[in-house]
Design a protein that fits this description.
The complex is a heterodimer of chains A (256) and B (372). By secondary structure, chain A is an alpha/beta fold. Chain A is built from 9 helices and 10 strands. Chain A has helices at 46-54, 76-81, 99-111, 125-137, 153-166, 186-198, 211-217, 235-240, 242-255; strands spanning 8-17, 20-30, 35-39, 61-66, 69-70, 84-86, 171-175, 203-207, 220-225, 228-233. In chain A, strands 6-7-8-3-9-10 form a 6-stranded mixed sheet, sandwiched between helices. A 4-stranded antiparallel sheet of chain A has the order 2-1-4-5, with helices on one face. The longest helix of chain A is centred in the middle third of the chain and has 14 residues, at 153-166. Chain B has one domain (2-371): ABC transporter involved in vitamin B12 uptake, BtuC. In chain B, strands 1-2 form a two-stranded antiparallel sheet. The chains are: A alpha/beta (256), B mainly alpha (372). Chains A and B meet through helix 2 and helix 3 of A and helix 9, helix 10, helix 11 and helix 12 of B. The structure holds adenosine-5'-diphosphate (ADP) and magnesium ion. Adenosine-5'-diphosphate binds next to helix 1 of chain A. Adenosine-5'-diphosphate (ADP) binds at residues 17, 22, 40, 42-48 of chain A.
Chain lengths: 256, 372
């Protein structure tokens, strides 16, 4: 293993929607064992950048590399199989399936067990057990048999995170995981992210608006503005820089 | 044991269980319970359509794929039997060749259509299947040297399956066990096996992914399931089962033509059966196929005699409405009513009904417990 090869890298990554450039030549590399916060005002292109990395959108130009291999032309499922894991900002679940079944499907995907046609899924006790453990971890055990679509918003966010954890990816991509959660639910989510961070082989990308969260968790901040990467560095350094203050962080900083 | 056979997928409603048991026993004992050619014909058709509709439910109900090419695969099975039997003569080896060829052709075609077109939007996929099925229908009618054209093919079956064959010298329970009855049981057991196999597939890890794709294909892809691959495999399984159903029908009818297998009237029938029975339940295929086949077989007669009755009583309007060739109208009304009153089909309705009753009983019990 070559430690200098980043687990994830984007080179001049660009997408245009008609005339609008939503992500503009973003070049950035992410090393294993790091947590990078991605910040920027609404509409800056953070979610779109994630969509380009995990394959929900096809790039207009530039590359996405996983461990040095170009995956720009691969579909989302192939990138997930190569170790990318994604939680969505807008909750994106299997609404008519139970909470447990949602998680079990993610566990099953991770185990690569989906292509078995003539066995029973209930016979995969190992997968059901693993799903049960994750259910406890995100504190949804009492909602096990509730269909996902009937959950309150905060619980849907938790389930979204549960699906990401179940995938056991090398790169965790969280897109505003605490948005819309009640204050008492946030610590559990931060605790989970903190635990993941302690594993030195994992890489975490976190889009987050709460600056205190960013400050306590991130070892690095990158700032997107109008689709372009305008700052990249250690939290203190980035927060002090004048372009960032002018571009976006100004008011939030006075508040923080 | 029963749980393994049903893949842990029980009817989950006492009324449904009872209905399924009645249908199962009626079909299993049809030659002895309902003597005569016409009832046995209806029973064999029900067996074939249960399998055909169940295989379509795998696509429509479980995976959310709308395809109009299902009767094409049904036809491939039918013509598979017809062509080998009329070319190679009525031997078992010819039949074996026919079924293998039909499965290979149906499976390959389904895979090709899937890989090339399941990437597109559902509506375009539906149109592509419509185009392919139409092309196939035209082809089957045009290649008359091979398929018999519009007239179809008549052929004979191996000797044991002919009406003149006697399994026993004496009648069994008052019924002469002839080659037709043997054929019927081949159809019955093959359809039953096919149905149970489909029940297994929908309750497998693969089947759970299909339901995930139906629910949210975007997320299924993001979890690492290549959606196109899963859909294509589902299409292949569905097509192979449809071909098997067509093969069984061809064996039963000893005739195969565009009207018995390929026509769009059959495609519409299949759609009605799956919707009335209940999509995404498989058991709905049993209920839908049985109800519709019985209705279509006897409704015309019943309506016809009612119509005559009305004419006799001097009510011409009623007689027009009830005349035998109005049965399609009644079918249409039946369809609209059933979609209106049971959007989840008969099976869905029965299951919800039972679930609500159970929940109420549970609430009552816990209510009275807390009152103490
Ligand atoms: N599918 C799309 N089609 C057209 N415009 C899009 C699409 N997705 C995102 N955009 C645009 O790209 C810009 C960036 O959006 P987004 O990535 O969601 O921002 P952020 O997540 O930083 O708030 C916005 O102007 C948005 O309207
Ligand atoms: Mg966003």
């Amino acid at each position: 293993m070559n430690a200098t090869v980043p687990v994830l890298e984007t080179q001049d990554l660009t997408i245009r929607f008609g005339g609008h450039v939503a992500v503009n030549k973003v070049t950035c590399a992410f090393q294993p064992g790091t947590l990078t916060a991605i910040v920027g005002p609404n509409g800056a292109g953070k979610t779109t950048y994630f969509n380009l990395i995990s394959g929900q959108l096809a790039a207009s130009a530039g590359q996405v590399l996983i461990r040095g291999k170009d995956v720009t032309r691969l579909p989302a499922s192939a990138r997930t199989q190569r170790g990318l894991g994604r939680a969505f900002q807008l909750t994106n679940l299997f609404p008519n399936l139970t909470v447990f079944e949602n998680i079990r499907l993610a566990v099953q995907a991770r185990a690569g067990a989906g292509l078995s046609l003539f066995t029973l899924w209930t016979d995969r006790r190992d997968l059901m057990h693993a799903a049960g453990v994750i259910l406890e971890r995100v504190r949804l055990a009492d909602k096990r048999e509730t269909v996902a679509g009937a959950l309150p918003h905060g619980d849907q966010r938790k389930l979204e995170i549960a699906l990401l954890i179940a995938l056991e990816p090398d790169v965790f991509m969280f897109d505003e995981p605490t948005a819309g959660m009640s204050m008492d639910e946030v610590p559990n989510v931060l605790e989970i992210i903190g635990e993941l961070k302690r594993d030195a082989s994992k890489t975490i990308l976190l889009v987050e608006h709460k600056l205190d969260v960013v400050r306590s968790l991130a070892g690095r901040i990158i700032v997107l503005h109008n689709g372009a990467l305008v700052a990249d560095g250690e939290p203190a350094e980035v927060m002090a820089s004048s372009i960032v203050r002018e571009a976006y962080l100004g008011q939030d900083f006075e508040d923080a | 044991m029963l749980s393994r056979v049903l893949s842990g997928d029980y009817p989950r409603s006492p009324i449904l269980t009872a209905a399924l048991l009645v249908i199962l026993f009626a079909l299993a004992l049809a030659p002895f319970l309902f003597p005569g050619a016409q009832p046995l014909n209806v029973a064999a058709k029900i067996c074939v359509f249960v399998l055909l509709v169940a295989s379509y439910d795998l696509l429509l109900g479980y995976t959310g794929i709308v395809s109009f090419a299902h009767t094409m695969f049904f036809g491939i099975g039918g013509y598979g039997a017809a062509i080998v039997l009329s070319r190679l003569g009525p031997s078992w080896s010819a039949l074996a060749l026919g079924i293998i060829a039909a499965i290979v052709v149906a499976g390959t075609l389904a895979l090709l259509i899937g890989l090339f077109s399941l990437r597109v939007r559902a509506i375009f996929f539906a149109m592509i299947t419509l185009a392919v099925a139409t092309a196939f229908l035209v082809l089957a009618s045009q290649l008359s040297g091979f398929t018999g054209g519009e007239d179809g093919l008549n052929y004979s079956v191996p000797e044991i399956l002919r009406p003149s064959f006697r399994l026993f010298d004496a009648p069994l329970f008052g019924t002469v066990v002839n080659g037709r009855i043997i054929t019927y049981y081949i159809v019955f057991f093959a359809a039953l096996a096919g149905f149970l196999l489909l029940l297994r597939v929908v309750n497998s890890p693969f089947g759970s992914v299909l339901q995930a794709i139906r629910e949210n294909e975007f997320r299924a892809e993001a979890l690492g399931y290549p959606v196109v691959v899963y859909r294509s495999i589902a299409s292949v399984v569905s097509a192979v089962m449809a071909a098997l159903a067509g093969f069984l029908l061809a064996l039963w009818l000893r005739y195969t033509g565009p009207d018995t297998t390929l026509s769009f009237a059959i495609m519409i029938d299949v759609l009605l059966m799956v919707v009335i029975g209940g999509m995404g339940t498989l058991y709905g295929a049993v209920i839908g196929a049985t109800l519709m086949t019985v209705a279509e077989s006897y409704l015309q007669t019943i309506l016809g005699s009612l119509g005559k009755l009305g004419a006799g009583a001097g009510i011409p309007f009623v007689s027009t409405l009830l005349s035998a060739d109005r049965w399609l109208l009644w079918l249409g009304i039946l369809f609209i009513l059933s979609v209106y009153f049971f959007p989840t089909g008969i099976v869905g309705k029965l299951r919800t009904h039972w679930l609500n009753r159970k929940n109420k009983a549970l609430q009552k019990r816990s209510g009275s417990a807390s009152n103490k």
